[in-house]
Design a protein that fits this description.
about 450 residues, 4 domains, four-stranded mixed β-sheet, two-stranded antiparallel ribbon, 8 strands, about 55% helix, about 5% strand, binds zinc ion
């Protein structure tokens, strides 16, 4: 039975509405429309329905709203259901109520964010206590973005010069260690969207800012601190290098696809990531680039053949995956390639090169040992036991290398910062690779025995 809510008081019109909507116990309409029409000057159903809607509102109890369980409003017979069912859409009043609720939720969410931003803004951290991976990213970001922007408002899109691909993944490490805060209330673009009743972030619209350095007795330049930091945690550095290498490979791939107008499926499978992972533990980044390049070109020629048996969507990831596997199993020759012009070295790559001598040409099987060597090569006063030996080595190196004024200036700056004589000495020795230089020359020249 269709539920009717009459909008007219005219008896004849009430009867007419009942005749149109009346159903028997099996759910069939009792009277055919061509028995009801013509009515007045209305001949067709299309002419009749607008008139009928002014006489009564009709609700079908066989179709219920999934939220409130109420009967669903219907405007014609074809919109009704002969059997009980739950509608896939909500009724109008539920939609209106929800939209009001969402508006209130949004106001509340914005107020919470503004409050959180206020608390975050007051925070500060000691950069010396950051883990090595966060410190490397922080140094890279400081090299790429000016202080004015960095401490006030920067966005993911500003980080392209830090790392070419998946910048959010690297920023997430800084957020995790509270070195960077999200300041969504500052965003001019819409930072939130509603998903299933929950407000989520558009990461590209979120405004970030760097948490200032604190926790030192002496005023220290945070950039100087990070530039001169002694790195110790090899496993964190290795993990970060792998993430960086993956992002370099992905950027190369996306760039290649864009240049050749090849659509890249947005859903990249874990299997492909695993294959890339294996490859960068064996080959250099530049060698993986050549494998990707071959795969992209071969995919393109296969697509040009227009073979109906080919699944165009998954062809490219499959070919890349298979080439990487073949290379890892040494069934495919892998060449080196130079860094493409449209794929510049970013500041994270710069830092890896300067601090750990790693770059796109470092063989995947070597990066782990190189990092270990670099870390164990950092000199401490304890290793020497005698600051006198340390000083002697420093002066010998300055004479041999001809960079005395530069080293002394850096040494004086360290003392000025108040870090103490031995530590200042260790820093310059570490920064100018004095120990390494000393040992090499010592052996070559037979000097300073
Ligand atoms: Zn409802």
């Amino acid at each position: 039975m269709i539920i009717l809510e009459f909008l007219t008081k005219d008896e004849n019109e009430i009867v007419l509405a009942k005749r149109y909507w009346s159903r028997d116990e099996k759910g069939k309409f009792r009277e055919r429309v061509d028995k009801i029409l013509p009515y007045k000057n209305m001949i067709t159903v299309h002419q009749f329905l607008p008139f009928l809607s002014k006489l009564a509102r009709a609700y079908d109890p066989n179709q219920t709203c999934p939220r409130c369980g109420g009967a669903f409003p219907v405007h014609c017979r074809t919109a009704t259901s002969a059997y009980p069912c739950i509608s896939i859409i909500k009724c109008i009043s539920c939609i209106q109520n929800l939209s009001e609720k969402h508006k209130k939720d949004e106001v509340r969410a914005k107020a919470q964010i503004a409050n959180k931003d206020k608390v975050n803004r007051a925070a500060s951290i000691n950069y010396n206590l950051l883990p090595d991976d966060a410190a490397i990213i922080l140094l890279s970001i400081m090299r790429a973005i000016n202080d004015e922007k960095l401490y006030k408002n920067f966005r993911i899109d500003d980080c392209h010069t830090v790392v070419n691909y998946s910048q959010a993944k690297f920023i997430a490490i800084l957020i995790e260690h509270q070195a960077v805060i999200e300041e969504s209330s500052k965003s001019k673009l819409k930072p939130l969207y509603l998903n299933d009743g929950e407000f989520l972030h558009y990461s590209h619209n979120v405004v970030y800012s760097l948490v200032p350095h604190s926790g030192s007795k002496f005023p220290e330049d945070p950039f100087f601190l990070l530039e001169n930091r002694v790195y110790k945690n090899s496993s964190l550095i290795k993990d970060l290098w792998v993430e960086y290498a993956l992002s370099e490979c992905m950027y190369f791939l996306v760039n290649k696809c864009n240049a050749l107008k090849l659509t890249w499926p947005t859903d990249i499978s874990d299997i492909l990531f695993n294959a890339l992972h294996l490859a960068i533990h064996k080959y250099s980044i530049s060698q993986v680039w050549t494998l990707i390049e071959q795969a992209v070109h071969d995919t393109l020629s296969m697509l040009e053949k227009d073979d109906a048996h080919i699944d165009k969507e998954t062809l490219l990831p499959k070919i890349i995956q298979s080439y990487l596997r073949q290379a890892v199993d040494e069934k495919r020759v892998v060449n080196n390639s130079a860094r493409p012009k449209n794929h510049p070295l970013e500041t994270l790559g710069e830092v890896f090169y300067e601090k750990f001598s790693l770059d796109e040409n470092t063989a995947g099987i070597n990066f782990s040992n190189i990092i270990e060597e670099k870390i164990s090569g950092h000199i401490t006063a304890h290793d020497f036991q005698d600051a006198g030996i340390l000083t002697k080595k420093l002066f010998c190196s300055m004479v041999m290398n001809g960079n005395g004024p530069e080293i002394l200036h850096s040494f004086a700056k360290n003392i000025e910062k108040g870090i103490g004589f031995e530590k200042a000495l260790c820093r310059v020795i570490s920064d100018y690779s004095v120990e390494k230089y000393f040992c090499e020359k010592n052996t070559q020249l037979g000097m300073f025995e």
